[in-house]
Amino acid sequence: xxxxxxxxxxxxxxxxxxxxxxxxxxxxxxxxxxxxxxxxxxxxxxxxxxxxxxxxxxxxxxxxxxxxxxxxxxxxxxxxxxxxxxxxxxxxxxxxxxxxxxxxxxxxxxxxxxxxxxxxxxxxxxxxxxxxxxxxxxxxxxxxxxxxxxxxxxxxxxxxxxxxxxxxxxxxxxxxxxxxxxxxxxxxxxxxxxxxxxxxxxxxxxxxxxxxxxxxxxxxxxxxxxxxxxxxxxxxxxxxxxxxxxxxxxxxxxxxxxxxxxxxxxxxxxxxxxxxxxxxxxxxxxxxxxxxxxxxxxxxxxxxxxxxxxxxxxxxxxxxxxxxxxxxxxxxxxxxxxxxxxxxxxxxxxxxxxxxxxxxxxxxxxxxxxxxxxxxxxxxxxxxxxxxxxxxxxxxxxxxxxxxxxxxxxxxx
Length: 413
Ligand SMILES: Nc1nc2c(c(=O)[nH]1)N[C@H]1C(S)=C(S)[C@@H](COP(=O)(O)O)O[C@H]1N2
Ligand SMILES: [Mo]
Known about the structure:
- There is one protein chain.
- The chain is α+β, with helices and mostly antiparallel strands.
- The chain has 2 domains: 2-156, Fumarate Reductase Cytochrome B subunit, CATH 1.20.950; 261-412, Alpha-Beta Complex (Sulfite Oxidase, Chain A, domain 2), CATH 3.90.420.
- It is built from 10 helices and 12 strands.
- The strands form 3 sheets. A 5-stranded mixed β-sheet has the order 4-3-12-7-8. Strands 5, 6, 9, 10 and 11 form a 5-stranded antiparallel β-sheet that branches. A two-stranded antiparallel sheet has the order 1-2.
- β9 (372-377) and β10 (380-381) form a beta hairpin.
- The radius of gyration is 29 Å and the shape is elongated.
- Bound molecules: ligand MTE and molybdenum atom.
């Protein structure tokens, strides 16, 4: 059971780690990194998997802890160096995973009741978790590889049984001798302890088998409980990321189609301290490259060729939703100041408060036909909370980089 759940948990953690790294580097790229704007739904999928697999970790991790619980308190706790590594990696793994999934869940609710920066800690802990998992697997590797190569050396209970090669000569002699003297309870066999690999004699009979471990829930009942818990949690929240589950989205904080322009709002104009004065008739969008500067009022932007695209907002906090956007191609706008192929862009928002006031966009997104400075959303003027007078919408980028209330676009030549 520990192995089966461990594998599922391992898969979920690797999915979370991979998709998390992708999300991290989209937001904080290393200088040489270039990303794929297409397929436009790529980030929506990777982030949806990240959040959904993360949520599935709750029942899986609790189930794994339940199964191995007695083994966590074996006595003496440490007998040798490998044992010490095993214990230490488990302690670090369990504690950091619990913190990781709990703060991740809090983040989907944008609730930060802790004194540290969420992204930094979530990023750092992922390496602690994957590192301790690697140590854990390395320590268990002899047992794991033996399982893969000699599945028959495990009995139905998942305990190691010994074949002749494993029994030291003296043990073999003793074993043979013992076997000739069956006890009233049954024949004596040799077993290796699950954790330490130490040999012990085992009387294979009902009264002795009836250890506290066996007295718990049946295996089938346990698998059913964990399975139902995972399916229910995923089923009742995945709708925040995957439209087909939209109808059963009970627990997740944001619902499909609810909000101005039929799209949820992640952060309101008020929270970003963008006021009506700032977006009044005097507002202009400045596009610049070195000394070349063009400014556009909203009317002037509306007079340029308009394009309509279907693109999702895919929020790092786990929700995503497809919408119809209309506006000016970023490529056309940046051409007015003579942008050359390969040049990147710095975007500045009117917002006063917030960590994403100034962000950068790689050339691969500027050159994509789908990237717009959007003026309309789902057939109506952009609502103030969706970034009126103009916002960025590009394929395959995290929501945090879909800058609302644009003020300046600066080509980095
Ligand atoms: N200027 C600015 N743009 C912003 C944000 C912000 O806080 N400030 N939030 C971003 C985030 S996290 C998301 S998910 C999207 C959500 O867009 P919406 O609120 O229009 O749905 O806007 C992005 N654009
Ligand atoms: Mo977001």
